[in-house]
Amino acid sequence: MSEKLRIHGGMRLEGEVAVSGGKNAALAVIPAALLADSPSIIENLPDINDVHVLMDIIRWLGADVEFRDNVMRIDPRPVDKFNPPYDLACKMRASYYLAPVLLGIFQRAQVPLPGGCFIGARPIDQTLKAMRTLGASVDTLGGVLEASVEELIGGDIFLDMPSVGATVNSMLTAVSASGTTCIHNAAKEPHIVDLANFLSSMGAWVKGAGTDVIRIRGGRHLHGANYTIIPDQIETGTLMIAAAATGGDVTITGAIPTHMEALSAKLLEMGVHVQTEDDWIRVRSNGVFRAVNVKTQGYPGYPTDLQQPLSALLTIANGTSIVTETIFENRFRFLDELRKMGANVRVIESSAIISGVDKLVGARVSATDLRAGAAMIIAALMADGVSEIGGVEYILRGYERIDEKLMQLGAKVERIRQEELTRA
Ligand code: EPZ
Asked: How many alpha carbons fall within 13 Å on the CB side of residue 96?
């Protein structure tokens, strides 16, 4: 059933909110737990659709899984299948992380590929190259990643770009390969480090995560582990931007300030007050912003997943901002929706030129992808009047209880289900 969010703009966000566990950390750590020969307990998992889809898939493979109060217990011992079904795997892009795991367990894997999405083609050539480098035969005929191998042997993987997904898949393959694997030009995102820490807690030998060379001595016996994943960097950033956008005063607890440095620096440049301590970040703003230029990069650069939410805020900054998207080739589609609210933006090649306007006006808009949905929420929170955002299912994939969290901070947000919409 399709749902909308109805947001009454103009309310200042104030108070304290706790950030949930990291979506992209969860999607890498859960598949890794299948490599153990005993159960794992993973804490601080966000209760979001993507995690539920991944749980359904590993249950289908045979794992015993319980998920309650953000804690998941996974017993991988009953897993006896290597070919998750299309109708489950296609719901969530990261399901292809299961391919190296199932290859390590069964020496073969057949995992349907979800293909591209609104933000780009999202090829997986680097993942295929990594698995082949370690000895696997791999192809993707018919949209299914089919891999097989006699024995995985460690080697040197050279990634053409610091791909997050390819780094995850290289790590998940290398822990099952005998000998040493070096992953060169690795992604350095916080959830890469989180995956390395989880693998190490299972008994793996992983060094260098967070740098551009990760070394793994594979083929070791892996046991279950108790682990708590990191807070969600992108949810933290989205809440920081929402606080600034409404001229609010919000403290985000359970965060890791060092993960947020690129955004914090940008907000400070815009005239926003950002205060950090060991596990909280306070954002205060008077609602007046300087225009800034932003260029998305891999971590520790400015994250592409926070490009859309910040672009929404820049629509009311004083002056003209230039936002350059270097990671995905089609991540400006949401600007069409912002134009409906009065934004003055145009796109030239990989840059959006955003000329600040006095205010946005509430409108009926839709989310075309997860972070576009976050951008629509930011815009609606600061617009004059009421907005309705369609495509809530995208937003709920990656933000746990985002409507409740915003209401807790003083926003006026309602979730409208389809039958109510037809009466409206
Ligand atoms: C991960 O996607 C995240 N998803 C994305 O978050 C995030 O935007 C992205 O990393 C960058 O940080 C998960 O972690 C589940 P990439 P991923 O491989 O792994 C090109 C969200 O909103 N590329 O680092 O797909 C690719 O086309 C999502 O939470 C190749 O050409 O990102 C893209 O242009 C959206 N060949 C660039 O590299 C490859 O084999 C970066 O992609 C792999 C990637």
From this structure: 29
122 alpha carbon – ligand 1 mean position (Å): 7
Cα separation values, 383 from 28, 102, 135, 367, Å:
36, 48, 55, 16
343 phi, psi to nearest 5 deg: -70, 150
Sheet of 364-366, strand order: 364-366, 386-390, 3-8, 412-417
Q: In the chain, what is the greatest distance between 2 CA atoms, to the nearest angstrom?
A: 64
Verify whether ligand 1 is closer than 6 Å to residue 327 (CB atom).
yes
Atom of ligand 1 nearest to the CA of 127: 40
- Ligand 1 pocket test, pick from 20, 24, 325 with the greatest ligand atom count within 8 Å of Cβ, gives 24
Q: With contact defined as beta carbons under 8 Å apart, do 283 and 243 qualify?
A: yes
Catalytic residues: 117
E strand map for 76-116: 108-112
In the predicted model, what is the mean pLDDT of residues 386-410?
Answer: 95
Give residue for tokens 């295929």: 128
CA of 94 to the centre of ligand 1 (A): 10
Neighbour-count burial of 218, counting CB atoms closer than 10 A to its CB (0-12 exposed, 13-18 middle, 19+ buried):
buried
300 prior amide bond cis, ω within 30: yes
pLDDT in tens, 12-63: 999 999 999 999 999 999 999 999 999 999 999 999 999 999 999 999 999 9
- Establish whether 126 is an annotated binding residue: yes
